[in-house]
Amino acid sequence: MLPPILQAALENFVHGGFHGTSIRQLAHAAGLSVPGLYHHYQSKQAILAEIDRLAMVDLWSRSIEALFDGPQEPLARFERLIECLLLFHAQQSDIAFIAFSEIRSLQGESREAHIAARDRQQQLLDDVVAECVSDGSFATEFPRDASRAITTICTGVSQWYRPGGELDPAGVAERYGRICRHAAGQLASDHPR
User: What structural domains and CATH numbers belong to the chain?
Assistant: First the structure.
């Protein structure tokens, strides 16, 4: 849960985009004057950077917990991590969408920090896919490419998921989890869900 100022900013960024949202709109949405908003954050860029930072910290924390909370066989770790990624991008779709789509608006150290956090996050999946290939759970010839494709599937959920649609978050995790396993070349004898 974001602090109220950041939540108000997030909602504005989702509806109007970072560049389409003025500092006055952000202040109004937060119930503050423009100087009042500047008391909390130096700039609109600082607000975006903090939203992004919090999104990436939350995703990392959830991912680490998912990887280590259960059996440590590679396929079990993969399934928990994919479920975590899909649930995050469905349940936290607004913040996930902004963290994904507004990287183009981040500048300087904030952009570098996001890229480092994104690469660190990707490495978790790259490693577990490689482990699944090594132990024979997955048959893909291209583990890194499969891992990137799976990331695209997971992050893409935040672009289209809306509550009240055909699938709830658990349904997204189940259906798209199967798609991710197929993208990695899961052998037919393994975990047919």
Answer: 49-183 (1.10.357.10)
